[in-house]
Amino acid sequence: MAGKGRGKAAAGVRPAKAGKPPKAAAPAGKVKAAKDASGPALAEARQRIDHIDLTIQTLIAERARWAQHVGRAKGPLKPALDYYRPEREAQVLRRVVDRNDGPLADEVLVRLFREIMSACLAQQEPLKIGFLGPEGTFSQQAVFKHFGHSAHGLPLSSIEEVFQEVESRNADFGVVPVENSGQGTIQVTLDMFLTSSLKICGEVELRVHQYMLSRSGHLEDVERVYAHPQSLAQCKAWLRQHLPKAEKIPTSSNAEAARRARSADDAAAIAGQSAGHVYGLKAIAGPIEDRPDNTTRFLVLGRELFPPSGNDRTSVLVYVKDQPGALYNVLRPLAEHGLSMNRIESRPAHQGLWRYAFFIDFGGHVDDEPVRRALRDIGEWASEVKILGSYPCAVL
C-alpha cells in the first residue's frame, strides 16, 4: 500500500481532505480532448512565430539595401565614417521609444534597433572606435551601447591615447569616461580638452555594476584587490566590511585589474562581469558598488560638429576675465535666453598661475538661435569661448 501511495503522489494525485469525498475522475475521452486541444494551439503559435521571423528578416534585408542606396546616392562608396550621422540615429531611437507599447522594455528595443543600424552602416567598412582598454572595460561596454557590436573597437592604454588616435585619424571616433554619479569628474578627460581640437559628438550613460572577481572564487583567499581608483572609491564601504585587511592596488583599468588577478589565487579584481568572462574569473560577490544608481557618463569624440537632433546638449570651455562678477556675467546669458545649465566644472587653465577655465554643459544646439545669442553674450565677458561640441542627449 505504501508503494501505491508513493505512486499516486508521483503522478500528481492528492489525497482527499478529511470529511470530503474525492472528486470523480474525468472521463478518459475528455482528458484526451484537452490534451489534443493544446497541441494544435501550440503548433499554430509556433507557425505564426516562424512567419513573423521571416517577415522580420525580410524587412531587415530591405532596410540594409536601402542603406546601400543612401550611400550610392551620395556618390562613390566611402568609409562608414562618411555616412555616420549621430543626430539621425538619435531621432530613430527616440521614435522607437515613443512607439513602444510593450511588452518589451524601451531599453531592449533601443538595443535591437541600435544593432540593426550598426550592421547596416558596417556593410562597406565598420567604424573604428578607440576606447580605454584592454577588452572587458566599461568603456568597451559604452562603445557597444552607442555604436553596436558591428563597430570595430580599438583598445588603447590611456585616455590620452584615445584622444591622440582620433586626432591622427587612426580611429574614427573615441569613447572616454567623463564623470561618475557618485565619484564626480574624471579630470584627465577635461584636461585633454584644454589643448585638443576634437569635438564631442555624443554621450553615453552606462549603469555600472561592480563585481568582486577571482580565480578561485573564494573570498577567504583574497589578500590583495586590483581595481581602477574610481572603482575602489565606488566600492569602499563593501571593501571596508568584507576585506578590511586586503591590500588595495590601483590599476589603469578594471580589465587590467582582472588580467592581473587571474595569475594568483590570493588576488582579486573589481570589474564588470564582462571582464570576468574575458579573463576567466569567477564572481565572488556582486554587485558591490555602494550606490545602486551608480552610473558613468561617457563622451563620444570626433573631429567635427553634426546638425541638431531636436534634443541636444552643448558643451563649452570658457576662460573668464579676471574681474569682479566675471563668472556671474558668463552664466547670466544662459538664464536670460532660457537655457538650462546641466553642469559646470573648473580646471586650471594652463595659461598662467591661478587662472581657471570653466567647463559648462547646457541644453540646446549651437545652431539654435537662443544658443547663438547666449554664446554671443558670453563672449562679451569671457576672454575666450571654445565650443567643445553640440550633440544628441543620451537615449536611455
What would you say this structure looks like, in words?
There is one protein chain. The protein folds into three domains: 80-197, Periplasmic binding protein-like II (D-Maltodextrin-Binding Protein, domain 2, 3-Layer(aba) Sandwich); 211-293, D-Maltodextrin-Binding Protein, domain 2 (3-Layer(aba) Sandwich); 305-392, Alpha-Beta Plaits (2-Layer Sandwich). Helix content is 41%, strand content 24%. The chain is built from 13 helices and 15 strands. Strands 1, 2, 3, 4, 5 and 11 form a six-stranded mixed beta sheet that branches. Strands 8-7-9-6-10 form a five-stranded mixed beta sheet. The chain has a four-stranded antiparallel beta sheet with strand order 13-14-12-15, with helices on both faces. Helix 2 crosses helix 4 (106-121), helix 3 (86-99) packs antiparallel against helix 4 (106-121) and helix 12 runs antiparallel to helix 13 (369-379).
Properties at a glance:
396 residues, alpha/beta, D-Maltodextrin-Binding Protein, domain 2, Alpha-Beta Plaits, six-stranded mixed β-sheet, five-stranded mixed β-sheet, 13 helices, 15 strands, 24% strand, globular, disordered N terminus, lyase
CATH level-3 fold name of the largest domain = D-Maltodextrin-Binding Protein, domain 2
Kindly name the structural category: alpha/beta
Percent range for helical residues?
A: 40-55%
Number of helices: 13
**General form:** globular
CATH architecture of the largest domain: 3-Layer(aba) Sandwich
Low-confidence stretches are 1-35
Compute the CA-based radius of gyration: 28 Å
CATH superfamily of the largest domain: Periplasmic binding protein-like II
**What are the secondary-structure elements, in order, as H or E?**
HHHHEHEHEEHEEEHHEHEHEEEHEEHE
Number of domains: 3
Q: How many strand segments?
A: 15
Could you tell me the mean pLDDT? 87
Pfam family, one: PDT
Region (Disordered): 1-39
Keywords: Amino-acid biosynthesis, Aromatic amino acid biosynthesis, Cytoplasm, Isomerase, Lyase, Multifunctional enzyme, Phenylalanine biosynthesis
Main location: cytoplasm
